[in-house]
Specification:
This protein has helices at residues 2-40, 71-84, 88-111, 115-137, 144-168, 175-196, and strands at residues 45-51, 54-60. The protein is mainly alpha-helical. The protein has a two-stranded antiparallel ribbon. The protein is globular, with a radius of gyration of 20 Å. The chain crosses the membrane at residues 6-27. Pfam families: DUF5667.
């Protein structure tokens, strides 16, 4: 009797996990379509990044932050977004959006006084930005779409650098972590500048 109850519980648990997985995949597909539509219609990036009183970039809005207990579900959704994106161009665009979301989260966390996790999230944002740049480099045809993504990555790099600088100016920030993150984005910026320089040949 006890063995039968255990087997029943295992079956119920397996069915529950399967149903939850199907639901998560379905929701991820639906949210990806919504996100793609908002991107096409110019409604995705709405949070301005200022430099010397000028808007230099816009970021997506942030809802759930990394210190939320359910944030792991968001990370699974983001992973599924990448898996659902076919082709280097589409994957690069999605990765850039995810990078923008992370740096927006970092800025929000810093404004809430969560400096350590803000710097860690900023590091993840730059990682994703660099990966988006690598994906563009792997595109077979560097057509207009690829060049537009490269320009957007360069714009985002400048915006990230400004956001990181703003975080570093706040009281209570771990100076060592901040300097490491600032060097990380500066090195990436320098790498982009070198690629844009005309060949000496």
């Amino acid at each position: 009797m006890i063995e039968m109850n255990i087997k029943t519980l295992i079956v119920i648990f397996a069915v529950f996990i399967g149903a939850a997985g199907i639901l998560l995949v379905s929701m991820s597909r639906a949210t990806l379509e919504i996100m793609n539509r908002d991107e096409r219609e110019g409604r995705l990036r709405v949070e301005p990044v200022f430099f010397e009183d000028k808007i230099i970039y816009k970021l997506p809005q942030t809802n759930m932050l990394p210190n939320n207990v359910f944030y792991s579900f968001k990370e699974i959704r983001d992973w599924l977004w990448i898996k659902f994106s076919v082709g280097k161009e589409r994957e690069a665009k999605i990765m850039l959006i995810l990078a923008d979301k992370r740096i927006a989260e970092a800025r929000t966390l810093a404004n809430k006084g969560k400096y350590n996790i803000a710097l860690e999230t900023g590091m993840k944002a730059v990682d994703k930005l660099k990966y988006a740049n690598e994906l563009v480099g792997e595109m077979r045809n560097q057509d207009t779409a690829g060049k537009q993504i490269i320009i957007q990555i360069m714009d985002s790099t400048l915006a990230y650098s400004e956001i990181i600088r703003e975080i570093g100016q706040k009281d209570g920030v771990n100076n060592q972590k901040y300097l490491l993150l600032q060097k990380y984005i500066d090195d990436f910026k320098e790498e982009q500048i070198k690629k844009e320089e005309p060949s000496s040949n």
